[in-house]
Design goal:
By secondary structure, the chain is mainly alpha-helical. 65% of the residues lie in helices and 7% in strands. It contains eight helices and four strands. The strands form two sheets. It has a two-stranded antiparallel sheet with strand order 1-2. Helix 3 packs across helix 6 and helix 4 crosses helix 5. The chain is globular.
């Protein structure tokens, strides 16, 4: 079908080039994380992996993210939902503390989401990684903008796009059989992309509108200052 994907009997699989591309992306994420970790270490040699304040604020944000993930505004038929801004709480951790802490928290959140219900749909280790581990860990990529102007919005958008990327790859590999009969066969390759980004971008729009409200913006600035004290 393409350089990166094979299609047979309605199922997709990675070609050799696809596997290589996946490994390159994964390696790039690891290297970027290592780079920022080294940079942070050079700037503040405290001898601690995470401070007590980081642990407390991160744990609180993870708990809020997990709780709000149960408040579903729109529940998609084959997984995924528009929630009460649950992804925001995970991306906040990266916004507060950078990619090292953010990716670690995202990884933990992915495990929580898997335990929440993912065990009912295990097809392979790769499927679990795409749908849970890598998808939710990527929310920690918000940390790459933790020192940027409007870093929360930038980081949140990057995190949403990255999560959708892994869900989409998982959709190509494992969930194409659930494509509705009404979906045009001529553009079936767009189905995983359209399905996953439909709910992610709706939640992103709602969240960004809320974050753009002056009282919320001011509150986020104050909370970040508290988290950094």
């Amino acid at each position: 079908m393409s350089l990166f994907l094979n299609q047979e009997d309605g199922y997709y699989s990675l070609t050799t080039a696809g596997v290589a591309a996946f490994l390159v992306i994964l390696a790039a994420l690891v290297l970027l994380t290592a780079f920022f970790r080294k940079k942070e270490s050079n700037e503040a040699r405290t001898g601690k992996v995470f401070s007590a304040r980081q642990l407390v604020f991160s744990a609180a944000a993870l708990a809020l993210g997990f709780i709000t993930s149960y408040v579903k505004i729109i529940d998609m038929p084959w997984g995924g939902s528009v929630t009460l801004c649950s992804m925001l709480f995970i991306t906040l951790i990266g916004y507060w503390y950078g990619p090292k802490v953010g990716l670690t928290a995202g990884f933990a959140y992915g495990i929580l989401q898997f335990l929440q219900g993912g065990g009912d749909f295990i097809l392979s280790l790769m499927q679990v990684c795409m749908d849970y581990i890598l998808a939710f860990a990527s929310l920690g990529l918000s940390g790459f903008f933790f020192r940027s102007k409007n870093g929360l919005i930038k980081g949140y958008l990057l995190a949403i796009l990255a999560r959708g990327f892994f869900h989409t790859i998982g959709g190509y590999l494992y969930w194409m059989e659930y494509m509705p009969e009404s979906f045009p066969k001529s553009i079936s390759f767009l189905y995983p992309f359209a399905y996953n980004y439909a709910y992610l971008l709706v939640e992103a729009f709602i969240t960004i509108v809320i974050l753009s409200l002056p009282p919320v913006k001011n509150a986020m600035v104050r909370v970040k200052a508290m988290a950094a004290e």
